[in-house]
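Researcher: Good morning. I'm working through a list of sequences from a screen, and I'd like to move beyond sequence-only analysis. For each chain I'm collecting a predicted structure so we can compare shapes side by side. This is the next one on the list. No need for commentary yet; just the structure.
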Amino acid sequence: MTKPLKQIHLAAHFPGVNNTTVWSDPRAGSHIEFSSFVHLAQTAERAKFDFFFLAEGLRLREQGGQIYDLDVVGRPDTFTVLAALAAVTDRLGLAGTINSTFNEPFEVARQFASLDHLSAGRAAWNVVTSWDAFTGENFRRGGFLPQEQRYERAQTFLRTAWELFDSWRGDEIVADKDTGVFLRDPHAGAFAHHDAHFDIAGRFPVPRSPQGRPVILQAGDSDEGREFAASSADAIFSRHGTLAAGQAFYTDVKGRLARYGRSPEQLLVLPAATFVLGDTDAEAQERADVVRRQQVSGQTAIKFLEQLWNADLSAYDPDGPLPSFDPRPGENTIARGRASVRMYRDPVATAREWRALAEAKNLSIRELIIEVTGRQNFIGSPATVAATINEFVQSDASDGFVLVPHVTPGGLDEFADRVVPLLQERGVFRTEYTGSTLREHLGIDRVTA
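Model: Good morning. Structure tokens for this chain:
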């Protein structure tokens, strides 16, 4: 029997604070003005994407005691932007990263329930943790939570928020033409939660929202992050860039679901990916080479190297060789506020891998950083990119992709106009929305209890 074609899920990431964006491109626009958010979101909706994703920045990054000014543009409040976008979109899901370390369940649950009402059921929450004291200083909680406890708090935070969402069944509000609106259940919204992290009780003020609960996203790639996603998330992001690595991640995460009473289709795997298009594959590759060198300038390469080495390397030539000494052990004090620093669990071992790669390919510092910091990247003609995306999904390396354009806000336009129609012709991507909520777009049941 022929295996039915999987439907591809696509999302658009508004990049903001990272080194993906090419600031020097003449098409680059503001990352603060509302018009930029509107352009990217409306392009994604025109292309029938599942959702728009906005990351969170709780503190400006620093390196060497100075503001990291190679990619910092600031970050407006996530809920404010998503609520405003709800008014200028109709079907597109609205996903935001909200931290579980420095917030409180009541406030976050109230905000997401409100967003779900305002958007008629399109809200999603990317649950993340923060372990560093540097970010915590903004909240007067620097270092209050040991790193090994961050997922414990995140899991408890999420479960507590679910209790608040579920404190309304959904049928408590009754409208009577004579007596007005009244509550069928006088206990609606009542909650009480007591544990090591939270000791709260009261009444949740927001009635059951259209989705019951917002869609839950998870971005952790550690073993703890994968387990958290398997137990609680509706979708998990990943950063695996090859077909084989994607398949291994996909198999691992989906294999964890059964012990939580969940089936494989209840968790979507959505890697982040960039793309560069051209009329031919060769033209696209030429463009991609230019883009990568724009993304990783000489200055940027040295800054990235400092993050691993935990040392001032400003005297090094980006077109020269790697340092001969090993990275400094201990807490990273050079780069502060960067999640990527946490990826290097064994900096000395990573440095040795980088040296071996640089020697094997005769790479300079900049050339090495270009190679090792690249994420999943689709390069080619529209036909090639459409075929490659489809191969990843049909081969169970992913269920779709979160696309990160290198130009904001218009970088998604060409993909929407030239690649999406080809996926639709293959019968693997919707031509129209068939539902109104994000859960319907993702094929996830509404939560009723």
